[in-house]
Write a structure and sequence with these properties.
With 449 residues, this protein is an alpha/beta fold. It has 16 helices and 10 strands. Strands 1, 2, 5, 6, 7, 8, 9 and 10 form an 8-stranded mixed sheet that branches. β7 and β8 form a beta hairpin. The longest helix is centred in the last third of the chain and has 26 residues. The protein is globular.
Length: 449
């Protein structure tokens, strides 16, 4: 399906990477990370991205104006925002705050008139306080599906042991062996390539002495190796393969965003998810964007954004999705083909491709990650063990035959109540999420649009 220049923009699902931050370290095997913090540059990058998005989507004179969205004060019923509160400490959340400052800037219209006739404007000249749902990875796997995932760690180890990796290590050995003077004692093994590049990149931005001493081509060479390294870690040949786990757990947020926007009784127009770079790699791989555009098989820049636009074709019919990507400081979005199609892709095609592999619940994540202890898996394991133990007959075979079925049903019901109470059981085709919107529409089994 080609692009319809006259299609109506119904809404947008936005995925945004954080802005510039101080350096931090990631374990090359497990990708557990140390804390860091955002910089004023990072805040500015996100603010400028928000300002660009405002000019594009919240401007009635723009050809990409989201039909019906408020162009003045923030309308909470029309927008849902969530931000990862995990691996990079508060950097992603803080970036998201700066993004919203650009999208919904200070305005004197943000005021209230009291009963005595006095008009009070919000602080800082009318600052708009935008609600952002923080997603703690200890409570939800949705935005960091890769941490504590044992099968993902196995996947990473297998990549490090592969002939492809060994060949690249041999090819890059002379370059890596030249890096110790610039790495302050860090390992120069290819396995550590992300940390090598990040240290060099952070210092090239913030340390003038380092930037002047670093040979001209070294940063670009390190980035090329880091891109290759990270794409192979966070991708897989199979769309539902464990290498794509960072994207598989993100999918329910994307699918729920489309479901909300497509539902005419739901006011949602804009869904924003602030994340690290890893889900971008998996999503680009899963959608086939990198197979058609190999240059995108790498770490996205600070303040990069994917805009998945849901559009209504001018000729009618079902909504379609347009895949736009802006890599950090790029001036504008670029539209890419995806799912092996040309132009906009029907919503049902996207759902049919992605819904079957989406990781909707903690229980599914625990199973595919072979984890029985972390991130809620211990509670699930305990509930399962208790349920199986309770289902064991404690009376004679004759008596057990009479009431066994009833006991089993009761145990299943009890387990369901327990898991639901713990927030570990989700019902429906796509994982439920908290929403601030009344009448949220969710696709159930058997529905496609």
């Amino acid at each position: 399906m080609s692009q319809d220049t006259n299609s109506q923009l119904l809404g947008v699902v936005l995925l945004v990477r954080h802005g510039d931050r101080q350096g931090f370290y990631q374990n090359p095997q497990t990708y557990t990370a140390t804390a860091t913090q955002i910089t004023p540059l990072g805040n500015q990058q996100e603010f400028l991205l928000g300002d660009y998005l405002r000019s594009l989507y919240l401007n009635q004179s723009s050809p990409s104006y989201i039909d019906g969205i408020s162009t003045g004060l923030f309308n909470q019923s029309q927008v849902y925002i969530q931000a990862d509160l995990g691996g990079e400490d508060g950097v992603i959340y803080d970036s998201c705050v700066s993004l919203t400052q650009g999208l919904w800037p200070v305005t004197p219209s943000n005021n209230i008139t009291l009963a005595n006739g006095t008009t009070i404007t919000a602080p800082l000249g009318g600052y708009q306080y935008i609600p952002i749902e923080s997603v703690d990875p200890n409570l939800s796997v949705s935005l960091e599906g890769f941490t504590d995932c044992n099968t993902f760690t196995t996947h990473t180890t297998a990549f490090y042991n592969s002939s492809n990796f060994q060949e690249m290590a041999a090819q890059s050995a002379s370059f890596l062996d030249s890096l110790p003077p610039y790495l302050n004692g860090r390992s120069v093994q290819l396995q550590n390539m992300w940390n090598i590049f990040d240290f060099m990149n952070v210092n090239d931005i913030h340390n003038a002495t380092f930037a002047q001493a670093l040979p001209l081509t070294y940063l670009a060479q390190a980035q090329a190796l880091a891109n290759w390294h990270e794409y192979n870690v966070f991708s897989d040949r199979a769309i539902g393969g464990i290498g794509n786990i960072a994207g598989l757990t993100l999918l329910p947020s994307i699918l729920n965003g489309f479901a909300d926007i497509a539902n005419t009784t739901n006011p949602l127009k804009l869904s924003i998810t602030a994340i690290a770079y890893k889900p971008f790699l998996s999503l680009f791989n899963m959608t086939g964007v990198t197979s058609a555009n190999p240059s995108l098989a790498g770490i996205v820049n600070y303040a990069a954004a994917v805009a998945l636009e849901l559009r209504q074709p001018s000729a009618g019919g079902e909504p379609v999705i347009r895949f736009n990507f802006k890599n950090g400081s790029d001036e504008t979005f670029v539209t890419y083909n995806f799912l092996n199609r040309t132009g906009d892709v029907p919503l049902s095609v996207f759902i049919d491709a992605m819904a079957p592999v989406a990781v909707n619940t903690t229980a599914v994540w625990c199973d595919i990650c072979a984890n029985t202890q972390d991130r809620g898996c211990a509670a699930l394991t305990l509930a399962t063990d208790q349920g199986e133990a309770a289902a064991q007959p404690k009376i004679s075979p004759a008596g057990a035959g009479a009431i066994g079925a009833g006991v089993t049903l009761a145990v299943v019901a009890l387990m369901a109540v327990t898991l639901a109470f713990l927030g570990l059981l989700t019902v429906g085709r796509f994982g439920r999420r908290r929403s601030r919107h009344a009448g949220v529409f969710e696709l159930k089994d058997g529905e496609s649009s």
